Amino acid sequence: MAGRAQDVRLAVGRLARRIRQIYSHDREGGATFTEAAILVRLEREGAVSPGELAGREKVTSQAIAAVVTELQRRGLVRRGADPGDGRKVIVSITDAGRAVLRDNEQAVARALIRALTSSFTPDELHRLDEAVPLLNRLAETT
User: Which of 9, 24, 55, 77 could hold 71 in an S-S bridge, CB 3.0 to 4.6 Å?
Assistant: First the structure.
């Protein structure tokens, strides 16, 4: 089992680094990998408190605060009062944030599509499709 864990760690780590490289390469006005992860979460799940965001991303509140501050400075997110409890602050994605997210996602998707169509057989693509839910589950349980 230790060998399998190491193989998974190495493969996922290499893929994550490659995707980060794609984000870095297309950074002109875009978002870093971490910024994009936060924007994706806000787009999918709606406005949340910075603490909730940190918990869901499995990072410290301090790390989230720095990223949210930068995203807000660039107009990609906004902070506002929680409608249910005006004492709390929530973070939401802006239209500009959605545009940057869309641009980043398209750049990464283009790179992945090129790799998938040029390097994998239909059977291998099917096996990758089957692996995605397992990888997501692994990400949630570690």
Answer: 77
Global pTM value:
0.69
Task: Locate the domains of the chain by residue range.
Answer: 2-141
Determine the angle formed by the axes of helices 33-45 and 50-57, rounding to 10 degrees.
Answer: 110
The strand pairing partners of 92, in sequence order, are 78
C-alpha radius of gyration, the chain, whole number = 17
Q: Helix (H, G, I), strand (E, B), or coil: what is residue 34?
A: helix
Phi-psi label, residue 58: left if phi above 0, alpha if psi -120 to 50, beta otherwise: left
Enumerate residues 6+ apart whose C-beta is below 8 A from 45: 56
Closest CA to 67 of 102, 88, 41, 105: 41
Q: Give the pair of three-digit tokens for residue 86.
A: 């005006």
For each of the chain's 142 residues, which pLDDT tens digit applies? 888 999 999 999 998 888 877 776 655 567 787 888 899 999 999 999 999 999 888 888 899 999 999 999 999 999 998 888 888 899 999 999 999 988 888 888 888 899 999 999 999 999 999 999 999 899 888 7
